[in-house]
Amino acid sequence: MNKLTILILISIALTFGNCGKKSNKVQADGSSTVYPITSAAAEEFGKQGSGIQVTVGISGTGGGFKKFCNNETDISDASRYIKEEEITSCAGKNIEFIELPIGYDGLSIVLNKENDWAKELTIEDLKKIYQKDGYAKTWKELNPKWPDIEIKAFAPGQDSGTFDYFAEEIVKKKDNFRQQGVSFSEDDNTIVTGVAGTKGGIGFFGVAYYENNKDKLSLAKVVNPKTKEAIEPTFENIKSNTYAPLSRPIFIYVKVASTTAESVDKFIKFYLDNAAKFTKETGYIPLPDSIYDKVKKRYSDKVKGTIVKSKEDKHKPLAELY
């Protein structure tokens, strides 16, 4: 047996040694928006009696990608597409990933229950509240018919994908987002408490958090810039993208190397097979079955990288991308 043959045999042995390796742990982290869905998947998966332990953390979409690209997690929950700098960071650690959309979300604009004036808000109103320069300090500054009550603004933490998405859609980039006088938190429950306890309060987060707290908060309709209609983030309005521009897909990103572990592979297949059920149960919007079929094939084929090739792609319906 010559040296080349020996090296080939060693390489094959190592390859197969990594495939299907035994492990009983799966580590997920990232978006607080996606957390309830992945958590529900982990809980139901645990009932299968496989002995596989799935741990799900919340560090925001950006924080989750930092851990993912630092090889600390198998799965990154994300409420936006992965950014170019995050792709570069992962590549620097030889981390390859599979991008898997699992549902739709609509960013809900929430108000204090005593707010009986701002039933509808335009994108321009939201911009005036959250922009860095020349922001409105009172509701009266937005509309002279509204009361002279201080606007107290709340927002998700700046490592959050929800923050990124809102900043991009409303004030166009993070640097334009107001810092002074805004209460930021990675924990959406803190925003619920803050808005519920402040008459002039306003905040935003995923629709599931509003649905779970609708007894404490009011919801503002958002005027679609194209149709000029005031729209609520309902199931149908988000799915049809008439709740624009604040409807968005949500994702899990899976590390390619982790899929050789039987534990991760089993969990992801279980997750995707039941993604419609978990998204609906947790207050989000399932994808059409045809898209789930393509997402499952994307995983089984181990398609690497993001499907987004340009900035415009981020705003295209998934049906156009998949």
List the helices and strands and how they pair.
Layout (H helix, E strand, L loop, with lengths): L2 H16 L6 E6 L4 H12 L6 E4 L3 H10 L5 E4 L5 H9 L4 E16 L7 E2 L1 H8 L8 H4 L9 E5 L4 H10 L11 E4 L2 H9 L4 E6 H5 L5 E7 L6 E2 L3 H5 L7 E9 L6 H12 L1 H7 L7 H12 L17 H4 L1
Parallel strand pairs: 1-2, 1-3, 5-9, 6-7, 6-8
Antiparallel strand pairs: 3-11, 4-8, 4-9, 4-11, 9-10
Task: List the keywords.
elongated, alpha/beta, disordered N terminus, eleven-stranded mixed β-sheet, 322 residues, single chain
The H-and-E topology, N to C, reads as: HEHEHEHEEHHEHEHEHEEHEHHHH
Structural class of the helices, strands and pairings?
alpha/beta
Largest sheet report: 11 strands, mixed
Number of strands: 11
The percent range for strand residues is: 15-25%
Measured as a percent range, the helix fraction is 25-40%
Low-confidence runs of at least 5 consecutive residues: 1-21
Task: Describe the protein's architecture and organization.
- The protein has 14 helices and eleven strands.
- The chain is an alpha/beta fold and 322 residues long.
- Strands 1, 2, 3, 4, 5, 6, 7, 8, 9, 10 and 11 form an eleven-stranded mixed beta sheet that branches.
- Strand 6, helix 7 (161-170) and strand 7 (182-185) form a beta-alpha-beta unit.
- Helix 2 (35-46) packs across helix 12 (275-281) and helix 3 packs parallel to helix 4.
- It is elongated, with a radius of gyration of 22 Å.
- Residues 1-21 have low confidence and may be disordered.
